[in-house]
Write a structure and sequence with these properties.
alpha+beta; VC0467-like; globular; AlgH-like; UPF0301 protein H9L10_03105
Length: 186
């Protein structure tokens, strides 16, 4: 991890991003290095039931128990983001990334790992940046980089995560939480 790595932090879209999956998006960065970056958009639930795609996982998912669009890359694939509490060892099929955040192999039988997890969210696709691309977007002001809280990835209310993350930041960044969705109507 380089000195400028955003691994484990949140990217919060600035109002400069006006459309698409990243508009008012909150991205948990899973990896950021010389080879690029990958993350998951935490606040884009989609109208797709987990049970229809991955039988057995829905009953273990954090609420709302629906699929989330993790980003625009590989929408035909699914990633399972989980929280492993404390210093508990990783169960089989789980790979810790940082802190309590881990990925679960969705081919693992859900019942064999679910009891060891504190949160589970299923994502269709992910956010990806080629080498240098995220650094360029940061330099042009597309993202605020902030520390996350453990509950961010598994929030019951993803629809207001963008505002909640900004509200807990120091001023003047916290003021962005009240930026109108359409400034032309203000």
């Amino acid at each position: 991890m380089s000195a400028t790595s955003t691994t484990g932090r949140l990217l919060v879209a600035t109002p400069q991003i006006e459309e698409g999956v990243f508009r008012r998006g909150v991205v948990l960065v899973l990896h950021h290095g010389e080879d690029g970056a990958q993350g998951l958009v935490l606040n884009r639930p989609i109208e797709a039931g987990i049970e229809a795609v991955l039988p057995g996982w829905e009953q273990h998912a954090s609420r709302p128990a629906t699929m989330f669009q993790g980003g625009p890359v590989q929408l035909d694939s699914a990633l399972g983001l989980v929280a492993v509490p404390g210093d508990a060892p990783e169960p089989a099929g789980v790979r810790r990334l940082f802190g309590s955040v881990a990925l679960v192999d969705l081919d693992t039988p859900p019942g064999s790992v679910a009891q060891a997890l504190a949160g589970l969210r299923i994502f269709a696709g992910y956010a990806g940046w080629s080498p240098g691309q995220l650094e360029e977007e940061l330099a042009t002001g597309s993202w605020f980089v902030v520390d996350g809280e453990s509950a961010d990835a598994f929030t019951d209310h993803p629809e207001d995560l963008w505002q909640r993350v900004l509200r807990r930041q120091p001023e003047p960044l916290r003021w962005m939480a009240w930026y109108p969705p359409d400034p032309a109507l203000n």
